Amino acid sequence: MISTEEKTTKNETTESDVEACVVEKNYIRPVCDVYRDEDAVRILMDLPGATDEAVEVSVHDGQLNIQAEVIRSEGEVRVYERSFRVDRRMDTAQIEALLQRGVLQLRIPFKEEVRPKRIEVKTAS
Amino acid sequence: MVHTRTPWIFQDLAEELDRMSRSNFLRRCGADASQNPGVAALQVRENEASYTLDLPGVAEEDLELVLEHDRLRIQARRDDVYKESDKVLLRERSYGEFTQELKLPWPVRENEVEASLKQGVLQLVLKRSPEAGPRKIKVKSN
C-alpha cells in the first residue's frame, strides 16, 4: 500500500518525471572485431557511453556474455548485449577485460596445453 | 574458440572487402546504424542545440571540430589495431577517417561551444548567436 505521505510526493512530480517513470530499454547488438594469435583470442567491442561499472562480462556453460547498460543524455536506456560460444581450448578463468574510450577489449587466452610449444634446438658441441 | 570462422576459401575475399571498407568509417548504415560510430542525435531548440555523436575508440587528439557560421564540421579518425600476425575471425568495426557536417538553422556563438568526449561519446552544446535573430529593416521614404 502506498501511504498518504508518499501520495503527496507523487503528486508533486513534474510532467517530465511522469514520462520518465517507464522507459523502454533499447537492446543493441554491439559491433565487434574478433582476432586471434597463437596465444589468445581478442575481442574488441564498441560500447559507446559505457562505464566500467556498467559492463558485465560473464562465462557460463561455455558461453561468454557481454552486457552493458547505458543511459544516454537524451534519456534513452540502451542495453548492449552480445554472446559468444567458447570451446574447451579457451582458458575462460584467465579472461582479461579493459574498457577504453567506449571500446571493450577482451583477451581470452588458449589453455597452456593447446598453445604451440617452441622447442629449442641445441647444436651438439 | 569463438564461433565466427570464415571458411578458408572466402578468407582472401573477406580480407579484401575488409581492406576496402576500412577506409570508410561509416560503412554500415540502415537498421543497425545505432551501433556504429557516426550515429548521432541532434536536438535543436530556439536558442540552443545539443548534439550527441558516438565515436568509440576515438582519442581526443584525433578529433577536430571546425565551426563556420552555422556549420560545424566534425572530423575524427580511428586506427586499425591489428598486427600482421593476427588472424581475423570477425570484423565489423570500421577504421579510418570520418567526417560529418552539421548545419544549424542559425549561426552559432563561436566562443560558447561546449564539447566533451567521454567514454567514446561526443557531446556538444551550441548556442545561437544573438545577431542571428530576425532583423528589422528600415524602409526609407523620400
How would you characterize the overall build of this protein?
The complex is a heterodimer of chains A (125) and B (142). With 125 residues, chain A is mainly beta. Chain A has a single domain, classed as Immunoglobulin-like, CATH 2.60.40.790. Chain A is built from 2 helices and 8 strands, in the order H-H-E-E-E-E-E-E-E-E. In chain A, the strands form 2 sheets. Chain A has a 4-stranded mixed beta sheet with strand order 1-6-5-4, with no helix packed on it. A 4-stranded antiparallel beta sheet of chain A has the order 2-3-8-7, with no helix packed on it. Chain B has one domain: Sandwich (Immunoglobulin-like). Chain B has one helix at residues 8-22, and strands at 40-44, 48-54, 63-68, 71-78, 87-91, 96-103, 114-118, 121-127. Mean pLDDT of chain B is 76; it is low at 1-6 and 20-38. The chains are: A mainly beta (125), B mainly beta (142). The A-B interface holds A 26, 28-38, 41-44, 46-51, 72-74, 80, 84-87, 89-90, 100-103 and B 1-4, 28, 32, 34-37, 41, 43, 50, 52, 54-59, 81-83, 85-93, 118-121, 123. Strand 2 of chain A pairs antiparallel with strand 5 (87-91) of chain B.
First and last CA, distance of chain A: 89 Å
Mean pLDDT of chain B: 76
Count the DSSP helices of chain B. 1
What is the total domain count of chain A? 1
Number of strands of chain A: 8
Major β-sheet annotation of chain B:
4 strands, antiparallel
How much of the polypeptide of chain A forms β-strand, as a percent range? 35-45%
Structural class of chain A: mainly beta
Order of helices and strands of chain B: HEEEEEEEE
Going by helix content, strand content and strand pairing, the class of chain B is mainly beta
